[in-house]
Amino acid sequence: MAYEFERKHRVAVLGGGPGGYEAALTGAQLGAEVTLVERAGVGGSAVITDVVPSKSLIATAEAAIAVRESHQLGVQFYSKTDGDKPVRPEVAVNLAAVNKRLLSLAREQSEDMRTTLEEAGVRIVSGEGRLDGPNALIVSTAQGEEGTDFDRIEADTVVVSVGASPRMLDSAMPDGERILTWTQLYNLRAIPEHLIVVGSGVTGAEFASAYRALGAKVTLVSSRDQVLPGEDADAAGVIERVFKRNGMTVLSKSRADSVERVGESVVVTLSDGRTVEGSHCLMAVGSIPNTSGIGLRGAGVQLTESGHIRVNRVARTSIPSIYAAGDCTNFMPLASVASMQGRNALFHALGDAVTPIQLRNVAANIFTQPEIATVGWTQKQIEDGEADGEIYKLPLKVNPRAKMMGIKDGFVKLFARPGSGTVIGGVIVAPKASELIFPLALAVEHRLTVDQVARAFTVYPSLTGSISDAARAMHTVNQ
Questions:
Q1: Which of 180, 228, 418, 472 could bridge to 184 as Cys pair (CB 3.0-4.6 Å)?
Q2: Which part of the chain is the Pyridine nucleotide-disulphide oxidoreductase dimerisation domain (predicted)?
């Protein structure tokens, strides 16, 4: 008797960042034959030069703040001189050791992810890849004196997850020493004497916050009225006040025209003619997708004017066999979203159950001190009439646990439908807001009412108590 075996579905993934990693792992778990092409290492820039190292740096900054401010809780550090007199020591940060640690963590995370893929049966190819039509990749790998070797990988499904790179300006080209992108900061051996950060979006604000906490003098150049334009105005206001209180110089409505290196210094020239001199400059003026020259247009994939790949809510492009995930797409540039896109792409391609992404339900966080976490509709959208909602804001300083911890800045803000009380969004500004936002994300995802949120028990005392307190307060609003 002759048996016929069905050929495995072949999947080729270009780029091993969060989206590509999850696509490859999901495909292998669902029984597909998966090949992942990655030029830098599994995890991509998110693990190697972005999320993992930057958040590790921020964790160090938080530790430095905790030590410096511990006296507010009655904890004091002293050493003794030869005369047996107490001397309060300064908090010192060894940036070379910090950077060595965080880059080691990034490599370790990358290797762990690679091992997971290999154990799942994914074939990993190191090299530069590009599309060769809608069902194949061409991969070039360096072969030393023998030249370059090319490999053609045919596939039923292709997933593109090539990420994005820091945007560079001709008038402020990074040199990797004094004028830097955020991927080059980890080469620094010592805390910058005076770091000028150009750009007050999420990346600029996070690094400005971290380096000020590490002890650097920081000047933040913001072209807008307020830092973090586009974020919740109340939350951005808290962060800007904390920045200034901590000694940071914030130059609002100030656009940088050029950045020049002058010896061991940098000079930033603003559009109004003013100049700012510092020891280093971080350019945080956005990113561009790595979609140029990889065969997308030749394969018929539609791109936006900015070069991002157009995808739908299951990560499918304009070509049925090609999916895309991560910062190279026109979706929200978050690692969590990239991962979900990668999973959804393979669920959809292989006929498994898939839930299309609702961007409204995505929880996001800004890792300043304090953090800002958001989910759902925004206050501006409610005020502009795009959504029907009631707003309630509760200052964190009235929370008993916050008082015990010495927390004075921050708040919990809830948005709910009039009448029904259905939670449609929220904002939390607090230490570890990234951990506190999850109950609100659940409420938005599952359409819970403020009464249902309020009925859940919270630990006393706890910061989460402010969430239930805010929900309880909205019960009277929705009578």
A1: 180
A2: 363-470
